[in-house]
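Contributing new records

If you add data, match the layout below exactly. Sequence lines come first and carry their own label; structure lines follow with theirs. Keep one chain per record. Anything else will be rejected by the validation script.
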Amino acid sequence: MYHYGRGVPEDRAEAEKWYEKAAAQGHRLAKYNLSCLRHENSRRGLA
């Protein structure tokens, strides 16, 4: 939701926080999304 601003304002820091929590519990899609988010941030110069 926060990653793309669906139903809530876009907030990449908040998205990263939730992806990290889910990834820490072994959620594979969250790990993938976290990687994608970090890659996008690095391309935007936000990392």
